[in-house]
Amino acid sequence: MSQAALPGATVASLQRQSLLDPVDNRILLCHALGLSRMGLITQSERTLTEDEAARLSALIARRLAGEPVAYLIGRREFYGLDFAVDANVLIPRPETELLVELALERLPPRGRVLDMGTGSGAIAVALAHTRPDAAVTALDVSAGALAVAGRNAASNGATVRLLQSDWFGALQDDIFDLIVSNPPYIASGDRHLSEGDLRFEPAGALTDHADGLSALRRIVGGAPAHLVPGGWLLMEHGYDQSDAVQALLTAGGWQDVQSWHDLAGIARVTGGRAALR
């Protein structure tokens, strides 16, 4: 079975004969040919031109080399919204929707929320889109990531204040009702960094180049100065880090410290409330 798409091949034959996962193959076919999923059915006997065959062959080769489908087509769905993605940002993942749900449950009317390390803006835009009454601020140290987040806010009709900042550095005296973050939490040298999609995603958004907890420590330590008394801090983390993150919060005097599990049963988000003062 050849990995190349040949001029004259039909859409139907390309769906039957592929080295790719069927879902990946369908997505790349739609992207390369400008077809919807229904179009793959209604135009099953359509034949490829030379340009279409070359375009599809290049996409297939890149996917077989491991490049994520989201980067190949430049899009990813998250929380029912369409997000642009490129190599400046992590690809939004379904498990992060738990963080959005938890935040929405705790965001008061006309509440102020901060998303730290926003990347593509997935969390911030999902919150602002769902709760247009909220004042949403999103920060990231990467100018490239903020450019992507800005495009995603605009395309989804969401109002998000974007701020280039190394964690709390540029916030000054800003106060929020809620802080959320999906920070880099993979430890330096972790084998997962050299496997699958992670090989292609920005390292600085994946790993803290330390023990996996340094960014989480900075957030836990700095958040009280930017939260109202009793305001929530919610952080996504690795599959085996909930105990360590709970310990950081408890040691810092946070209240109601707890973890929440994603649909796979993994403790994915941990948080607590700022002390009442």
From TrEMBL:
<dbReference type="GO" id="GO:0032259">
    <property type="term" value="P:methylation"/>
</dbReference>
<keyword id="KW-0808">Transferase</keyword>
<keyword id="KW-0489">Methyltransferase</keyword>
<feature type="domain" description="Release factor glutamine methyltransferase N-terminal">
    <location>
        <begin position="22"/>
        <end position="74"/>
    </location>
</feature>
<dbReference type="InterPro" id="IPR002052">
    <property type="entry name" value="DNA_methylase_N6_adenine_CS"/>
</dbReference>
<comment type="similarity">
    <text>Belongs to the protein N5-glutamine methyltransferase family. PrmC subfamily.</text>
</comment>
<feature type="domain" description="Methyltransferase small">
    <location>
        <begin position="96"/>
        <end position="190"/>
    </location>
</feature>
<protein>
    <recommendedName>
        <fullName>Release factor glutamine methyltransferase</fullName>
        <ecNumber>2.1.1.297</ecNumber>
    </recommendedName>
</protein>
<feature type="binding site">
    <location>
        <position position="167"/>
    </location>
    <ligand>
        <name>S-adenosyl-L-methionine</name>
    </ligand>
</feature>
<feature type="binding site">
    <location>
        <begin position="117"/>
        <end position="121"/>
    </location>
    <ligand>
        <name>S-adenosyl-L-methionine</name>
    </ligand>
</feature>
<feature type="binding site">
    <location>
        <position position="140"/>
    </location>
    <ligand>
        <name>S-adenosyl-L-methionine</name>
    </ligand>
</feature>
<feature type="binding site">
    <location>
        <position position="182"/>
    </location>
    <ligand>
        <name>S-adenosyl-L-methionine</name>
    </ligand>
</feature>
<dbReference type="InterPro" id="IPR007848">
    <property type="entry name" value="Small_mtfrase_dom"/>
</dbReference>
<keyword id="KW-0949">S-adenosyl-L-methionine</keyword>
<dbReference type="GO" id="GO:0003676">
    <property type="term" value="F:nucleic acid binding"/>
</dbReference>
<dbReference type="GO" id="GO:0102559">
    <property type="term" value="F:peptide chain release factor N(5)-glutamine methyltransferase activity"/>
</dbReference>
<dbReference type="Pfam" id="PF17827">
    <property type="entry name" value="PrmC_N"/>
</dbReference>
<dbReference type="InterPro" id="IPR029063">
    <property type="entry name" value="SAM-dependent_MTases_sf"/>
</dbReference>
<dbReference type="InterPro" id="IPR004556">
    <property type="entry name" value="HemK-like"/>
</dbReference>
<dbReference type="InterPro" id="IPR019874">
    <property type="entry name" value="RF_methyltr_PrmC"/>
</dbReference>
<feature type="binding site">
    <location>
        <begin position="182"/>
        <end position="185"/>
    </location>
    <ligand>
        <name>substrate</name>
    </ligand>
</feature>
<dbReference type="InterPro" id="IPR040758">
    <property type="entry name" value="PrmC_N"/>
</dbReference>
<comment type="function">
    <text>Methylates the class 1 translation termination release factors RF1/PrfA and RF2/PrfB on the glutamine residue of the universally conserved GGQ motif.</text>
</comment>
<dbReference type="Pfam" id="PF05175">
    <property type="entry name" value="MTS"/>
</dbReference>
<dbReference type="InterPro" id="IPR050320">
    <property type="entry name" value="N5-glutamine_MTase"/>
</dbReference>
